[in-house]
Design a protein that fits this description.
Helix content: 55-70%
Distance between the termini: 59 Å
Strand content: under 5%
Number of strands: 0
Structural class: mainly alpha
Oligomer: single chain
Shape: globular
Length: 187
């Protein structure tokens, strides 16, 4: 059973409820289903490539640590800066998780800088719809039953800053990570 709520700066007993986790899984799957028909990098799709398990392992470690760092940053801002109670904490983490998970796909779906990549129309449309749904849910009648609460403007601004910083960090990390490998592919 959940406690009534944390005191200032104390995490809720469950940072996300099971129904909220299921909603995140469902909503993040929608844009990811369009990746199969996404536009590939022209230099990469010209010829087949062998899978590189070592590269995949390093990728998972590097980007897993980056994602974890931004999860901790989100927790810190929600708990220690904004002093969010359980509903606002869960809503803030839900919104940040959804926006960052769907936005980072635009960086990581390509080895090129995201400005030189053209995501498919389906990825753009479905991601836009998911963003609108994500931002609307806390303001709709379903918010209460889902354990959400409308976010005050300062919370939304904080989340947008975190999401933009995460995207920029993912893009810079990607450029560093693939620097040598992409040069070899483009030769």
């Amino acid at each position: 059973m959940l406690r009534s709520g944390p005191s200032r700066g104390q995490a809720p007993s469950a940072p996300m409820l099971p129904k909220q986790t299921l909603l995140i899984n469902f909503l993040t799957d929608l844009p990811e289903m369009t990746i199969a028909r996404d536009n590939g990098d022209p230099n990469f799709v010209q010829a087949p490539h062998r899978g590189d398990i070592g590269l995949i392992s390093r990728f998972m470690i590097v980007f897993g640590i980056l994602s974890l760092a931004f999860d901790y940053l989100t927790f810190a801002v929600l708990l220690w800066v904004l002093h969010a109670g359980p509903e606002l904490f869960r809503t803030g983490w839900f919104v940040e998780s959804m926006l960052s998970a769907t936005l980072v796909v635009f960086s990581l779906h390509t080895w090129l800088p995201f400005t030189r990549s053209r995501p498919s129309r389906a990825l753009l449309i479905v991601t836009s719809v998911v963003w609108l749904v994500t931002l609307a849910i806390p303001c709709l009648p379903v918010a209460g039953p889902l354990g959400f609460k409308a976010l005050p403007p300062l919370y939304l601004l904080s989340i947008v800053v975190i999401v933009v910083a995460y995207f920029a960090s993912a893009e810079l990390t990607k450029q560093w990570f693939y620097c040598e490998h992409v040069r070899g592919v483009q030769r």
